[in-house]
Amino acid sequence: MQIKYLGKDNFEIKDKKATVYTGEPTRVNDVELAGPGEYEIAGIFIDGLNDGIYIFNLEEVTVAHLGQLSRTLTDSEVDKINGVDILMVPVGKDKALSPKLAIEVINQIDPKIVIPMDLGALDEFCKMEGVSLPKEAVFKIAKNDLPQEEERKVIALCPQTKS
Questions:
Q1: Residue 15 confidence (pLDDT)
Q2: This model's pTM is above 0.85
């Protein structure tokens, strides 16, 4: 699977069968997701929650995109999202989580990999997490490459235009 950061809350996630585009609108290939609900498109299972939160299952890897979340998660959201492999979390000032609140949300979920979305506070978040500022726009991962239990990796990406 390949994850390309396109800026703000927009990512392009490619697997062998399809391409997912996050942000407004979220879509799989050319099929736009209508909001909360369960979907199966091109072999990808999707669970849409409130506030633009989506959970995608691609190539045995679970990815959660938290949209423009600006609060901690509810218990029912934690139940649905808990245990995801990759968590895309909005970090910023408006329509996003402050760096401190982003870390609280990350700890609610305990993902293996965190990819912050830069909505205005990426520098502060990276400093708090001890992560270098991004140099790459693309991240490739397979199920076998995921960190082991009790290990978390933060991957900050810089924006790139769509391919």
A1: 94
A2: yes
The domain locations on the chain are 2-154
Q: Per CATH, which fold does 2-154 belong to?
A: Metallo-beta-lactamase; Chain A (3.60.15)
Mean pLDDT on 50-71: 95
DSSP per-residue letters across the chain: -EEEEEETTEEEEE-SS-EEE-SSS-EETTEE--SSEEEEETTEEEEE-GGG-EEEEETTEEEEE-TT--SPPPHHHHHHHTT-SEEEEEEESSSSB-HHHHHHHHHHH--SEEEEEEEB-HHHHHHHHT-PPP--SEEE--GGGSPPTT--EE---------
Cα 38 from Cα 28, distance rounded (Å): 13
Please check the confidence at residue 163 and state whether its pLDDT lies above 60: no
d(CA 100, CA 52): 21
Task: Tell me the mean pLDDT in the region 13-23.
Answer: 95
As a whole number, the mean pLDDT across the chain is 92
Chain length of the chain: 163
